[in-house]
Design goal:
A hairpin with a 2-residue loop joins strand 22 and strand 23. It is globular, with a radius of gyration of 20 Å. It is 11% helix and 45% strand. The chain has two domains: 107 residues, Immunoglobulin-like; 170 residues, Glucose Permease (Domain IIA). Strands 12, 15, 16, 17, 18, 19, 20, 21, 22 and 23 form a ten-stranded antiparallel β-sheet that branches. With 288 residues, the chain is mainly beta.
Length: 288
């Protein structure tokens, strides 16, 4: 059933504009789950000046997908409350006339797994200088991820950065020593130590440093507030400011940081929303 939603045709709505023209608005999946990426398509039947939109106030940046077709993506954070949410699309024609439509979008619970762990307390709690370092690193990372580049850098469907078994699912809730911890905001891909990690799409490297918990970490800005994150690398093959192409090697699989074995943690942030990387792969089709 989960896969079926992505195979269904986009839900199509026709919006009559002020001048009598019709604009077709469609989106997929029709029902989201926490952590999904929503793909919105707008097809004006007449020339329009601008198309704007938002989901619960989060901006949707539209771009040309083909002749007469505009597309945009927006993320539903993994902690979003299930229920009905608000998709808004505003069309403006060359005469300055605008038309606004609001659509209800249903969000379901993600059905994330729960893992119970018992660990020595010193492995769980950060104290003193280590805690100070961790908090400083969080501040730096948040500053990077909160920046929105007003330009789309990706030009292809997104790809997996490395082959391997999924060893840590997106959204996994860990209860450690009886305390609920932050959910897993990416996917862990089990791969051989030293395997090449490729950029999941075109972008600019905006972070390439070693962190206390995450080890050697690379973050790529793909534009429009979309970032991909690669953690626990044994080696970083890029530096901040580098432009990278889809599939280009940015580092090697490792076990740096606080981990039990080699793997790649791959995460996606979309305008601050923590989303499932595989949802992004489904949301951006061929021909981008």
């Amino acid at each position: 059933m989960r896969r079926l939603w992505w195979l269904l045709a986009f839900l199509l709505i026709a919006i009559p504009c002020s001048g009598g023209e019709v604009v077709q608005v469609s989106w997929s999946p029709q029902v989201l789950r926490q952590g999904d990426v929503l793909s919105v398509i707008v097809k004006p039947e007449a020339k329009v000046t601008t198309v704007k939109g938002d989901l619960d106030g989060t901006t949707i940046y539209f771009y040309e997908q083909g002749e007469g077709v505009l597309a945009g993506i927006v993320g539903m954070d993994l902690a979003t409350s299930p229920g009905q949410h608000r998709l808004r699309v505003v069309i403006k024609d060359p005469e300055g006339r605008s038309s606004e439509q609001v659509f209800p979008v249903q969000v379901e619970a993600g059905g994330f797994e729960v893992q119970q762990l018992t660990l020595p307390q010193e492995m769980v709690e950060l104290k003193g200088e280590i805690l100070e370092r961790y908090l400083a690193e969080r501040k730096r990372i948040n500053g990077v991820l909160n920046h929105v580049r007003p330009k789309r850098l990706w030009r292809h469907p997104f790809i997996r950065p490395v082959d391997g078994e999924i060893t840590g699912a997106f959204g996994l809730r860990r209860i450690i020593n009886g305390q609920d911890r932050s959910p897993h905001n990416g996917v862990d891909i089990g791969a051989l130590l030293g395997a090449e990690v490729g950029a999941c799409n075109n972008g600019v490297v905006v972070f390439a440093q070693e962190l206390y918990l995450e080890g050697k970490t690379v973050i790529i800005d793909h534009g429009f507030g979309l970032y991909s994150i690669y953690m626990h690398l044994s080696e970083m093959r890029v530096k901040e400011g580098d432009e990278v192409g889809i599939g280009e090697c940015i580092g090697l699989v490792g076990a740096t940081g606080r981990v039990t074995g080699p793997h790649l943690h791959w995460g996606i942030r979309l305008l601050g929303a923590r989303v499932d990387p595989f949802s992004l792969l489904r949301a951006v089709p061929s021909g981008e």
